[in-house]
Design brief:
Length: 74
């Protein structure tokens, strides 16, 4: 996907930050919205998070294994 090590590192950091922010948004919705809204939001966010992991980070780490976080496969 990205062979330039510096660029791959920057993309990894950015995507992990986006992933964390998306995850944090689920907690916010759970705390402030109805269970129905929360469930619908979690489903939508799951698709976004899944794409970040499967379509961006997994291919990135496959080509740049040294960038993979230590707890990535847990």
């Amino acid at each position: 996907m990205i062979s330039n090590g510096n660029t791959a590192k920057q993309i990894s950091e950015l995507m992990l930050d986006v992933f964390r922010q998306v995850d944090e948004s689920v907690d916010m919705v759970k705390a402030t919205c109805s269970p129905e809204e929360s469930a619908a939001y979690q489903k939508a966010v799951g698709r976004v998070a899944g794409s970040i992991v499967m379509d961006v980070l997994e291919p990135l780490y496959s080509q740049n294994p040294s960038l993979k976080p230590p707890n990535w496969n847990e």
